[in-house]
Design a protein that fits this description.
This protein has about 250 residues and is of the alpha/beta class. It has eight helices and eleven strands.
């Protein structure tokens, strides 16, 4: 990371060995993968890059569907240890490092940024990430960007700032706030796992982009939006959608 770039939170601390167990226990990987596969029209011969691949669950899902040229990059070491210990690790390329700084020497038919893996940096750096995506797409390539929709922020604005959950001896408390006029989502998640004797707090901050702002950002990066969705079930994107999903292609 150069001095000009700022991460909004300590990503290594948040995306740690326990991240998936405590912070993302409810992910429906079958549905997530199926959505990505269909929304991007992925074929078996496509080359696919996932930015922020985490433990590689989505790439494994695509591998199950016959896609063989799969690459994932992540800057958190702990989640990549899990990816490399999981099924298909021999046939999926996992890269450790920041997407922005990795020297890619090929282009990809499909690039994926899924489940809020974008918006962790200052605005200028977030914009440069999209510009780099545009340079890495093949001429007919497509990019899927999945970020929180406006309905997500509306929930916090409406006062849903604390969520508590008890699951298998794990007590989790999420406290979310919106900062700086609502453009930053800032969440503290405190986990108490009585069985394992673990008590820790995760901090997560993300830049929330409104629809018009995101369209402009993608266009400025050289990406044209060809389709939008508001859910992983292909619902249309509206002002109350919890997800905002953009399918974009390079500007010829
Ligand atoms: C919320 S997790 C989602 C992981 C995965 N996409 C999934 O759905 O399971 C976001 C991941 O993106 C990674 N990440 C975010 N920005 C990144 C960047 N610029 N370069 C590399 N990894 C990044 C984080 O380290 C984290 O593992």
């Amino acid at each position: 990371m150069t001095d000009l770039e700022k991460k909004l939170f300590d990503t290594d601390a948040t995306f740690d060995v326990d991240y998936y167990e405590y912070m993302a226990p409810h992910r429906d990987t079958a549905q997530d993968t199926s959505f990505i596969f269909d929304a991007l029209d992925i074929t078996a011969i496509d080359t696919v890059l996932e930015i922020g691949t985490g433990n590689g669950r989505l790439l494994r899902g695509l591998r199950e569907r016959g896609v063989t040229n799969l690459t994932g990059i992540d800057f958190s070491h702990d989640v990549l240890v899990q990816a490399r210990a999981a099924q298909y690790a021999d046939s999926i390329t996992y890269l450790e490092g920041d997407f922005l700084h990795h020297p890619f020497d090929v282009q990809y038919d499909k690039i994926v940024s899924f489940f809020s893996s974008f918006g962790y940096m200052d605005d200028a750096t977030n914009a440069r990430i999209l510009e780099k995506v545009a340079t890495l797409l093949t001429p007919s390539g497509r990019f899927l960007l999945d970020i929180p929709g406006e309905g997500y922020a509306n929930n916090v604005r409406a006062g849903t700032t604390r969520i508590e959950e008890d699951r298998d001896g794990v007590h989790t408390v999420w406290d979310a706030t919106l900062r700086e006029g609502g453009i930053y989502y800032d969440s503290m998640c405190t986990v108490t796992d009585s069985k394992k004797g673990i008590h820790k707090t995760y901090h997560f901050v993300m830049r929330l982009y409104q629809h018009a702002e995101m369209i402009e950002l993608l266009e400025r990066a050289g990406l044209t939006v060809v389709q939008t969705y508001g859910s992983y079930a292909f619902h249309p994107l509206t002002a109350t959608s919890k997800r905002a999903i953009y399918i974009a292609q390079g500007t010829a």
